[in-house]
Amino acid sequence: MKFDLLIKNGQTILPNKSGKFDVAVKDGKIALVGKKLDVEAEEVIDATGKIVVPGAIDAHVHLAMPFGGTISADDYYTGTRAAVCGGTTTIIDYPCQRKGNSIADTVKPRMEMCEKDACCDYSFHVAITNFNDGKILEELEEACKSGITSFKGYMVYKKEGMMVDDGMIYQLLLRCKEVGAMLNLHAENPDIIDVLTKKFLKEGKTSAWYHYASRPEFVAAEADKRAIHWATHLDAPVYIVHMSDKEGLEAVIEAKKRGFDVRVETCPHYLEFTNEVFKRENGINFVCSPPMKGKDSQDALWKALNKGYIDTVATDHCPFQQAEKLWGKDDFTKIPNGCAGIENMYPYMLCKANEGKTDYETVVRVCSYNPAKIFGCKDKGSLEVGKDADIVIFDPKKEFIVSVKNMHSNYDHTIWEGFKCNGYVEATYLRGKLVFKDGEFVGERGYGKFIKRERYLGK
Ligand code: DUC
Ligand code: ZN
Ligand code: ZN
């Protein structure tokens, strides 16, 4: 048989072993993996000196999201174009249910936009905000059948109409467990945030620092612990998104050690930045929720990542334009929350492996293998025979300095400006098709396809 593509001589990162494995692709699938493959292919790539990894799955993005009085700057075209240029071949986006809407109503317009625009593969976790007299809980089963097998609850954003209260979380945990879905939770305590916010504004404390000061470590930790408390008592799986604080993380680790199915995600911005960024002149640009915490939390996240306690790394990509961020220059509550990251996650994590802060196997586990497993993307997540040929070639010798000018998104500034990557993505393949090469997007708008996900089967 003649293969379509053969990637030879690379250091290939596989789930249980890494080494000099060649990878052959046929009809968009990984067809053969082995040492010194002596086979014929239409195209042969010599990856000597390069690292060959599966495409990343960014399981947390907000594309074209109405939020903070505007819409996040990347839509499904620019966001997914940027994704593949950073080695991410699948995204899971968060459409947010609006009052009165069913799950199907929530997904349909997003699905239509993706069909037309997506440059990478995609799925959705639906954020539930209103039960519609109990109908939504019924609809979870139907949604799972259609391949949407995870949902989200925001423990914050009351005035935006997005918050779920404790009773709703309790019911969602039970119902998700029943239908085989995962419940993702954004955990911060909304009432304490409100009290602190009002206090700071009254005192004239309006800078970006007070965004952090109104949502400090203990405010996230309390909600993390509440989420874990219910999940463990109900023996229901839970996935805590964007973990940023040490105390909450310790509670997750403790629950894991007790055998509970508590999963945790963190993001590159919590690994790279601390709350010191809010003291910078451009501190407003770093405003996201939860905010970056102190150095102790950052150190704890790295330690947990390297010990295997962090399940996934994802971006929470939700960029806004500079002029929109500036709405809050004299009042931190007016800054739209969210930062860019979709094109930076995999290069950042792979570069940290290259520098020895972590290792390639860990990066592949948290950025690809685990999100595929947890969120039921059965054809994704590793370079094994039969999986989709989502492949990234990383050049550990290539130096790259991130700038808004060399990104492929639609935003006009980035918190990653000036970040020096020791190593960078050289090429990205999506189901065997080259979509990014040497700094250029070479993919196709609309080539991305919906990933019908499997139900969550537990650990
Ligand atoms: N946090 C952000 O910073 N942006 C989008 C939503 C969220 O929870
Ligand atoms: Zn969130
Ligand atoms: Zn988010």
What does this structure look like?
The protein is an alpha/beta fold and 459 residues long. The protein has two domains: 2-53 and 390-441, Urease, subunit C, domain 1 (Roll), CATH 2.30.40.10; 56-374, Alpha-Beta Barrel (TIM Barrel). The protein has 13 helices and 22 strands. The strands form five sheets. A seven-stranded mixed beta sheet has the order 3-2-7-19-20-21-22. The protein binds dihydropyrimidine-2,4(1H,3H)-dione and zinc ion (2 copies). The site of one zinc ion (ZN) has 3 residues, from loops.
Task: Offer a few descriptive terms.
459 residues; alpha/beta; Urease, subunit C, domain 1; TIM Barrel; 2 domains; seven-stranded mixed β-sheet; six-stranded parallel β-sheet; 13 helices; 22 strands; 23% strand; binds dihydropyrimidine-2,4(1H,3H)-dione; binds zinc ion
Give a short synopsis of this structure:
The protein is of the alpha/beta class. The chain has helices spanning 76-85, 103-117, 135-145, 166-179, 190-202, 209-213, 217-234, 246-257, 268-272, 295-307, 322-325, 345-354, 360-374; strands at residues 2-8, 11-13, 18-20, 22-26, 29-34, 40-46, 51-54, 56-61, 66-67, 70-71, 88-93, 121-124, 126-127, 150-154, 182-186, 238-240, 262-266, 312-313, 391-401, 420-430, 433-437, 440-441. It contains 13 helices and 22 strands.
